[in-house]
Amino acid sequence: PLKAFQDGNFGNIDFMIGTNLEEVKLFTALDPEISKMGDVGGEKLLIGYLGRLGIDINKSKGIIDTYRKAREGNFSTEPNEIMNALITDYLFRISTIQLLEAQSTHQENTYNYLFTWPSPAFDGKLGACHALEIPFVFNTLDAPGMADFAGKNPETEAISNKIMDAWIAFARTGNPNHDSIPKWPRYDIEKRSTMLIGKEFKVVEKFLDKERAAWDGII
């Protein structure tokens, strides 16, 4: 699929794609083994995990060190949180960025988002996990169980309305911009503009870019 994008096979198609900030926490947040990583030699476990992906020990140490330094002052540097960030990027974000890079060279209407709203479930342990954006996109915050998973209050309703308006605008015109959000720039390799979607809608450039670059030539 990536080669098809790189070759321009979809160059005539407007393209919007994104991920959630902590995708993998849906699967790991309640895993007692991962929560104990700091007590049992977390870095060795990280290196072991990356080794199972076929990444040699020196490159693994370099990736882990990059994540630790990049997250200082911004996100937790606990081994389990670095593990969550690594797996999220490996399974979701890096491949998304590769598609954005490929499509943006053929199609101006290419847009990226990152969903950052944290789930209130399990005392917030899930974070902005996999599938959390779905009830916001499809206006199903009233569905059974969604109030616990996504939250149900004026703030979530407002986020959902802005998301729906963006998705509808994109479906109609190939451009997700509308009056209730900041100007959403197109994605390009130079600025890597991304709309952060959460308590506020905010455009950032080169978000988590050191972590992204750590995977260059590896995946």
Radius of gyration, taken over Cα atoms and rounded to an integer in Å: 18 Å
Strands in their spatial order, largest beta sheet: 1-2-3-4
Please identify the structural class as seen in this structure: alpha/beta
State mean pLDDT (0 to 100 scale): 94
**Number of continuous helical runs:** 10
Q: Percentage of helical residues?
A: 40-55%
Shape, per Cα inertia axes:
globular
Following the backbone from N to C, one meets helices and strands in this order, namely HEHHHHHEHHHEEH
Keyphrases for this structure?
four-stranded mixed beta sheet, single chain, alpha/beta
Structure description:
This protein is globular. It is α/β, with parallel strands linked by helices and 219 residues long. Helix 4 (42-52) crosses helix 5 (57-71). The longest helix has 26 residues, at 79-104. The chain has helices at 2-6, 25-28, 32-35, 42-52, 57-71, 79-104, 134-137, 146-149, 154-173, 209-214, and strands at 15-20, 110-115, 193-197, 201-205. The chain has a 4-stranded mixed beta sheet with strand order 1-2-3-4, sandwiched between helices. It starts with a helix and ends in a 5-residue tail after the last helix. Strand 3 and strand 4 (201-205) form a beta hairpin.
